[in-house]
Structure formats: C-alpha cells, structure tokens
Write a structure and sequence with these properties.
Elements lengths: L1 E5 L2 E4 L2 E3 L3 E3 L5 E3 L8 E2 L5 H5 L4 E5 L7 E2 L3 H7 L3 E5 L1 H11 L5 E5 L4
Parallel strand pairs: 6-8, 7-9, 7-10
Antiparallel strand pairs: 1-2, 2-3, 4-5, 4-10
Length: about 110
C-alpha cells in the first residue's frame, strides 16, 4: 500500500523512499531506478517489471506528470496482455492502491517533476 507520495519521496508500507522506483507485483520494491532518457519511459527501462508478468503497469509520471511513455510503448505492452496506465503521481498512487487489491499490478514512479 502506498501511504504518501510527495515531491521527491514516497511512503510504501511504512518505508520512505527518496529515489525513483519500481514496485513489482509481488510487492518487492526496487529503488534507485533510472531511465535511459530522463523523462521518457521505454520498455528497456521496465524490462524486469514486464518479465514479472503484471496485468497492469501503473506509471507514476511525476508530480507534474512530465515523464511520458515512449511512442508505441502502450501498444507493445498491450500485445503482451499488459495494460499501461500513466498518470501524475497522486493519481497513480490512488490507482495502484485500488487495483492492486484485485489484479496483478506493477508500478514505476518518477518522484520529481
């Protein structure tokens, strides 16, 4: 469960993180996540998350929503049976908390911008 998400930090199950991160469907958190191109999300950036076979990937696109999925990423994921839901962090947090109760959900969060 994501408890809070503010500029530069996120609290998941009582633990505070201050770097971009990935949440795997089993609840494992991998922090210090980096993308190849700063505000672009590509399949290479979330390769291990894709391999974990989530039904949904929620992309927290930053406080102001400046991180964008690379063109074609949503289609590529859809072909693998994965729905991509990009949203600014507050909305992404809400989506994660709601959907992870019912589905196999993974997420990635860019904590600034």
């Amino acid at each position: 469960m994501i408890e809070r998400c503010d500029f530069g930090s996120i609290v998941i199950d009582g633990k505070r993180y201050s770097s971009d991160l990935i949440i795997y469907p089993d609840g494992h958190v991998a922090d210090s996540w980096y993308r190849k191109v700063g505000h672009r999300l590509s399949s290479d950036d979330i390769e291990r998350l894709i391999e974990s076979e989530p039904e949904i990937i929620i992309a927290g696109t930053g406080v102001s929503g400046l991180m964008r999925p690379e063109e074609g990423l949503e289609k590529q994921l859809r072909q693998k049976g994965i729905e991509l839901l990009p949203a600014p962090n507050k909305r992404a947090m809400e989506l994660y908390n709601q959907l992870s109760l019912k589905k196999r959900v993974g997420a990635c969060f860019h904590l600034t911008c």
